[in-house]
Amino acid sequence: MCNPHSTRSVKSATGDRGRKLHVVSEKGIFTDLDKVAAGIGWSVPASVREMQGVLGIFVFYQRFIHDFARIALPLHALTQGTKPKKNSKKKFTQGSCVFHWGDQAFKTHVEHLTSAPVLAFADFRIPFELYTDASGDLGRFSTVLHQVQEGQERVVAYASQCLTKPERNYPAHKLEFLALQCAVAEKSHGYLFGHRFVAYTGNNPLTYMLSSAKLDDSGFRWVAKLRF
After folding, report:
1. Phi-psi region for residue 12, left (φ > 0), alpha (ψ -120 to 50) or beta?
2. Among residues 48, 18, 47, which one has the least CA distance to residue 32?
3. Residue 51, class by beta-carbon neighbours within 10 Å (0-12 exposed, 13-18 middle, 19+ buried)?
4. CA–CA gap between residue 146 and residue 154 (Å, rounded)
5. What is the value of pTM for the model shown?
6. In angstroms, rounded to a whole number, what is the distance separating the alpha carbons of residues 31 and 57?
7. Cα 129 from chain centroid (whole Å)
8. Exposed site from 23, 109, 139, 152, fewest CB < 10 Å?
9. How far apart are CA 217 and CA 174, in angstroms?
């Protein structure tokens, strides 16, 4: 992570065009649409292997896509439990409901990539703001890390994660607790560790988690992660 205020010479737009799939400029970080188009061809994958290749590109760009886990869930479902051989001829059936489900998710991903926001450089001189949201029904939690820079709210990074089957049965307050500790201790740890930040969650009881003794085993583990 670089601090733009300590960089004296910055080109108008720079990036390793041979390998990187994003562009860094004085305005922030944004997607390189030419590289994205070359990587996925803007066509719907027709086989498991093609879908896995496309998912690799989408995962690379997940920090640019809000609620990535929810959008990508149908695409992951198309590859679950499959281990295609090197010369596999297995194709998706165009008329199947599963293919239609993945088709819509693919188009949604493309729309998000072509309209992805310019992510701001993290300014460690000012506090961060972290927003978390968890839903057992949707099977995911998502986070947004941003800062108020020069009077404007700028997104620094998006993050999200699918829930396991046991996690989907958690009560609302435990789901929000899970999302908070994952965001602070894992997803945004590189930005937040040792720096000031304010966390906003959708569950008021979480304000008492550091002083309450009524926690289960996982709750105590999560509190330990947040404290260290």
Report:
1. alpha
2. 18
3. buried
4. 5
5. 0.73
6. 11
7. 16
8. 152
9. 12
Of the candidates 66, 77, 75, the one whose C-alpha atom is nearest the C-alpha of residue 45 is: 75
> How far is Cα 95 from Cα 105, in angstroms, rounded to an integer?
16
List the chain pLDDT tens, one digit each, 228 residues: 555 554 433 444 444 444 556 788 888 998 877 767 665 666 777 777 878 888 888 888 888 988 888 888 878 777 765 554 454 445 544 434 344 445 677 778 778 777 778 899 999 999 999 999 998 888 889 999 999 999 999 999 999 998 988 999 998 888 999 999 999 999 999 999 999 999 998 877 677 776 666 788 888 888 888 876
- Give the 3-state secondary structure of the chain: CCCHHHCCCCCCEECCCCCCCEEEECCEEEECHHHHHHHHCCCCCCEHHHHHHHHHHHHHCHHHCCCHHHHHHHHHHHHCCCCCCCCCCCECCCCCHHHHHHHHHHHHHHHHHHCCCCECCCCCCCCEEEEEEEECCCCEEEEEEEEEECCEEEEEEEEEEECCHHHHCCCHHHHHHHHHHHHHHHHCHHHHCCCCEEEECCCHHHHHCCCCCCCCHHHHHHHHHHHC
d(CA 159, CA 59): 11
